What we know:
Residues 5-32 form a coiled coil. The chain is an all-alpha fold. Helices cover 96% and strands 0% of the residues.
Amino acid sequence: MRIRCAEETVRSERLEAEREAVEVKLQLLTKEYDLVSQQVGSTQERVQGLQM
């Protein structure tokens, strides 16, 4: 019984760590997406300026 409880605790802690890692990865991807979106916007503005 104690082993099963310990296994469940380890599994729970591992899942929590994995969830936190996914949250950090999501934050990084969101920041990267925002940066790329800004760069695309700047590029579109330059292209429109050249077309005029």
